[in-house]
C-alpha cells in the first residue's frame, strides 16, 4: 500500500510522513523528490524547466520505483510529495493501479496565512521565494480537483503528531476492514 501525503510547502508533509511511518508497522518513507534529483543530475541536462515533475520520465519512474521497492520490502510506503497538476496525479495513480497497488491519498491542508508563516519561519530566507510560489497553484488545485481526489487533513491547528495519528488511524481502519471482509469470504 502507498500512503501519499500531498499538499504544498509548509503543510507538514515531511515531518508528518516520518511520524506516520513510526505509527504504521512494516512501513517506510519514499521521497519521490529523489527521483527528480536523479533526473536533474543527467548531463547534459534535460530540457530546462522550473519543476522536475514537468519532465515526462518523472511520473513513470516514481511509479516504477515505488512498485519495485514494495515488491522487495512489502508493507507500506509513505510518500510525502506535492503533486498539483491533475494530469500528473492521474498518471501516477493510474500507474500504481496498473500494478494493483492500493493508494490512500491524503492532502495536508492549511490556510494561506498559516502556510506563509510556516514557510517564512521554517526555512532559510533564500528558499522562501521558491516555496511561496506554490501557494497559489496549490489553492487552485485545491479548488478545482485536489480536495475531491483525496482525504483532506486540515493541519492549520494540528500538530504534525495529531495529523499523523489521524492518517495512521484511517489507514489501520481500512486494513482492518479489508481483513475482516476477506475473513468473511466476501
What characteristics describe this protein?
Rossmann fold, 5-stranded parallel sheet, 5 strands, globular
What percentage of residues falls in helices of 4 or more residues?
40-55%
Number of helices: 8
CATH homologous group name: P-loop containing nucleotide triphosphate hydrolases
Strand portion, in percent? 5-15%
Radius of gyration: 17 Å
Would you identify the regions where 5 or more consecutive residues have pLDDT less than 50? 178-183
The CATH top-level class label: Alpha Beta
Provide the residue-averaged pLDDT: 92
Q: How many domains make up the coordinates?
A: 1
Strands ordered across the widest β-sheet: 2-3-1-4-5
Shape: globular
CATH architecture call: 3-Layer(aba) Sandwich
Task: Characterise this structure.
With 186 residues, this protein is an alpha/beta fold. The protein has a single domain, classed as Rossmann fold. The protein has helices spanning 13-23, 33-40, 58-73, 86-98, 112-122, 128-132, 135-144, 160-183; strands spanning 2-6, 27-29, 76-80, 103-109, 151-154. The chain has a 5-stranded parallel beta sheet, sandwiched between helices. The chain is globular, with a radius of gyration of 17 Å. The model is unreliable at 178-183 (pLDDT under 50).
Amino acid at each position: 500500500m502507498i500512503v501519499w501525503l500531498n499538499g504544498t510547502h509548509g503543510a507538514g508533509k515531511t515531518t508528518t510522513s516520518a511520524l506516520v511511518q513510526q505509527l504504521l508497522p512494516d512501513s517506510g518513507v519514499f521521497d519521490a523528490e529523489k527521483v527528480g534529483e536523479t533526473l536533474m543530475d543527467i548531463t547534459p541536462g534535460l530540457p530546462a524547466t522550473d519543476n522536475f515533475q514537468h519532465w515526462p520520465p518523472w511520473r513513470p519512474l516514481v511509479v516504477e520505483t515505488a512498485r519495485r521497492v514494495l515488491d522487495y520490502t512489502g508493507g507500506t510506503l509513505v510518500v510525502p510529495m506535492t503533486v498539483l497538476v491533475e494530469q500528473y496525479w492521474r498518471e501516477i495513480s493510474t500507474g500504481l493501479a496498473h500494478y494493483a497497488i492500493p493508494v490512500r491519498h491524503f492532502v495536508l491542508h492549511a490556510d494561506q496565512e498559516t502556510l506563509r508563516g510556516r514557510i517564512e519561519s521554517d526555512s532559510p530566507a533564500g528558499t522562501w521565494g521558491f516555496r511561496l510560489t506554490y501557494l497559489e497553484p496549490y489553492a487552485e488545485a485545491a479548488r478545482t480537483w485536489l480536495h475531491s481526489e483525496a482525504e483532506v487533513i486540515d493541519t492549520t491547528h494540528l500538530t504534525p503528531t495529531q495529523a499523523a495519528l489521524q492518517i495512521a488511524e484511517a489507514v489501520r481502519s481500512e486494513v482492518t476492514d479489508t481483513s475482516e471482509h476477506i475473513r468473511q469470504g466476501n
